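Record type: ASSEMBLY
Status: queued
Input:
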Amino acid sequence: MSDFVGAGRHEPPGASPRGARGMTVKYFATIRTYTGETGRHLDDAPADLRELLTTLAGRYGTSFRRAVFSGGELSGEIIILVNGRNVRYLQGLDTPLAADDEVSIFPMVAGG
Amino acid sequence: MFGWTGTILRVDLTKGEVTREATDPQLARDYLGARGLGGHIVSTEVDPTTDALGPDNKIVFAPGPLTGTFAPAAGRFNVVTKGPLNGVLAASNSGGTFGPELKYAGYDALVIEGKAAKPVYLWIRDHEVEIRDAAAVWGHNTPDTTDLVRAETDEDAKVSCIGPAGEHLSLISNIMNEMHRAAGRTGVGAVMGAKNLKAVAVFGSGPVKVADPEGFKAAVMKARQMIQAHPVGGTGLKAYGTDVLVNILNQTGALPTRNYQDGYFPTADKTGGESLAAKQLVRPKGCFSCIISCGRVSKVDNPAYAGYGEGPEYESAWSFGADCGIDDLDAITKANFLCNEYGLDTISLGSTIACAMELFERGIITTKDTDGVDLHFGNTAAMVEMVRKAGEGEGFGVKLAQGSYRLAESYGHPEFSMTVKKQEMPAYDPRGVQGIGLNYATGNRGGCHVRGYTIAIEVLQNGAVMDPHVTEGKAGLDITFQDLTAALDSSGACLFATFGIGGAELTEMLAALTGLDYTLDEFMLIGARIWNQERLWNLKAGFTKADDTLPERLLTEPIKTGPSKGEVNHLDQMLPEYYGLRGWDEDGVPTKAKLKELTL
Amino acid sequence: MAKVLMIHPDKCTGCRNCELACSFEHEGQFRPGASRVQAYTWEREGMSVPMMCQQCDDAACVTVCPTGAMHRSTTRANLVDWDESTCIRCKMCTIACPFGNARYDAASSAIFKCDTCQGAPECVAFCPNGALEFVDDEQQVRSRKKAYAAKFKEAFQEVS
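Status: finished
Output:
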C-alpha cells in the first residue's frame, strides 16, 4: 500500500498522480473519519472485495470494520462501488477485483 | 377541526379587500393542505390559459395539517400558482418558519388575487390583516427587506418576500423565507412581483389543535426514533448537509458536468459536503420542528468571495460547480449567497449560466453578447459575475434571468437548454440513472427531482436497491414515489423525513392529529389524486405527450467519461409502461375510469 | 443534589421543538406563544438561543409577589413554583423578572413560567440536538468545562 502522493486529509483523491499503477480505494463522508485519509493506492490488487475490506479493516481498526461488515457479511449501511457500480449488482463481497479497479466506499448518504 | 385551522384567508389586491371563508372539511380530507389543497384552489379558480403574470393569476401560500405540530421535520408550506417559467400548475415547497406562523395566525391557506396599483406588502397579525405601502422596501434584497418589514410590523414577524429578481419579473426568481429558505422553483417570485406584492409578514398567536393527543404523541415519538436511528436522517445530513451527494453521484458517473456534456467531474470532491464541512461550515441549522438539521450556516473567508449565510445545498454546489466546470467551493457558496439575496433559483440560474458557457464555447455567443465577459467553462469569476448580473437585471443578466430555454432559443439553439418543460433539470444525470430520467420527463412542473426521488433507491440504497442502469421496474418505482411525495408535500412534512419513515408513519400521525380514519391506502390515493389534478390542469394549459420528454442530448449523446461512459437514457422503454400504470391512455391523458377512482 | 436546566446555545439549531413540546405538555395543543421556553433565532448570524426560567435562588418574581403565589417549592429542590389558586394575576412577577421568563397569558389567565414539567422537562426530551439538558447541579458545567480543558490540553501538548 502507498499513501496518495500529497493527499492531505481534505484533499481530493483526484490529486493522485495520473497513471499511477495499481488499485485505487477512495473513502467518503464519515468513512474518512475512520481512515484519516481520503484514499489509498494498492500496488497489488486483492482477489476480491472481501479480501480488500479485510485488509483495510486490519489497517484502520474497529470503527472501519464495524462500518463495512455486519456479522461477516457486507453491512446494509455501506455503499461500495467498484468502477462506479454498486457491488450489490455485482457479486457483493465476492466481487472479483482487478489491478486497475477503482473502489469507492461510502456510508449511507442522502440529500436532494 | 383538528390539524387544520378551519379558515382560509383571501386578499384581493386590486380591490384592497380581505375576506375569510371556512375550510371545506371534505376538501381538506381529500387534498390535505399545502400542494394538494393549494393546487385545488388554483385549479378550480384560475383559468389554465391565463397569463401567469397577469392579474387573473392567483398565488396561494398554504401549510399542511402537520405544519405547526411537533411531527418531525413537518414545518413546511407550499406556494401554489400558475408558474410563470413554464405555465404549469406550480407548487414550490419551502421550510423555515413562515408556514407554521401562518397556521398559528389561524389560516390553512392564504389566497392572494388581483394586482396592487403600487408596491405593497401584507401584514397579518392573527385576524388583523393590512395591505401596506411597500415604497420603502421595494428594491431591497431579501435580508434587508426582511429587516425593514419587521421594523415596520413586529420584530418577531415571519417574513416571506421577493428580492430584486422577483421585482424584475425574472422567470427563475424565487420567494425567500426568513432570509435563507426558498420556495425556489418555477419562478414563483415573479408572480409576487407582477402583483406588486413585495412581502408577506405574519405573526400568529393561536393554536393547532390535536384530536388524539396521546395517540399523536406516540406516533410522533415513533417517527422521531426511526429518523434518529437512520444513518442519514439521524447523523449523516447533520454532519455533511445535502452536499454530501456530490461524491456519490460523481463516483456513480451521474454528476452532470459542463451543461450535461458529461457525467463525471474529476475534481468534484472539492465541492462536496466533506469539503464544505471542513472549510466553511459554522454550524448546522434546522427548519421549524426539524430533527435532521441539514441546513448549513456557512462562512467564506476568501476575500474574493467573502460572505456569511446559508448553503450551499447539493443542487447549488452542482449547478454553480460541476455544471459550470467549476471546483472552487468559495465561489460556489458566494453564488449561492447572492441568489438568496437577489431571490433567484440556484438550480435554474446555475444551469442557465452553464448553458451560456456552452453557447460561448461553441461560438454561438461571444463577448459582444456577454458584456465583454469570457464565459468559458471553469471561469470562476465570470460565473459569480453572471449571478450578480442576473440578480441586478443588468446587461446579459437580463437574458440569464429568463432561464436557459429562452436564452438558448433566442440564439436559435434551444437544444443546448438542459430543461424539461422549460424548467432546468437538477443534479442527477438520467443517462447514468435511468429512473430519474422518467421522473424528469413526467414531472408536473418540469425538470425536478423532489417529486419522485428515485435516486433514493437507484443510488442511495435507502431501504431497497434497484440498478440505476436498468429501465425495468422504474415506471412503477417512479409512480409510487410521485404519489407518496404528492401526499407528503401536502401533509406539511419534509421529504427528508423519508430518510427514516414512510407513508405508514405519516398516515399514523395524520390520523391521530385530525381524528380522521386515514389509512395508508387513502394516503397513497390522495397522492395519486393530487398528481392527476396537476396533470389534468397542465393538459388544459396546453401541455401534451410531446412535452413528456428529455433534452435530445440525454437520449442520443452518450456520457463521455467516468463510470457511466457510453450510457444514454432509454425513456422510450419506460414511458409507455408509466402511462399504462398511471391509468392514462397512450396520449398521457387520464382515463375516465381513473378519474372516477380518484374522485376527480 | 438538585437538577438544573442547562442551555447550550452552541448546539441549538433553532428548530423550536422545545417550544412545541412545552406548549403541548402544558396546553394540550401546539401554540409556541404559550411555551415556557422560547428559542430565538438571529437569521443573519445563523444563531439561536433557547431562553427559559432559571429557577433563581434569590428570585425577583418571588420577592415581588404580594400573595406568595410565586414561591420556592418546598417539595422539589431548585424550583420556583407558581400557585394558580393564590395568584391574583397582578403580573408583578412578569415585570420583575429581568430575563423575561415569566409572562401573563390572557387566553388562559395564567402566568407562564417553566415548572420543569415536575422534574421531567419535555423540552429536554424533545430537543434533538442536546442544546437543552436537565442535569445534576454538580454536573451542570462538566461537559462544557471539559471541552474547554481539552482545548488547553491540545495547546499544551504542542508546546511540551
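Annotation: Strands of chain A lie at 2-3, 23-27, 39-42, 69-70, 73-74, 78-82, 85-86, 102-107.
Annotation: Chain A has a mean pLDDT of 85.
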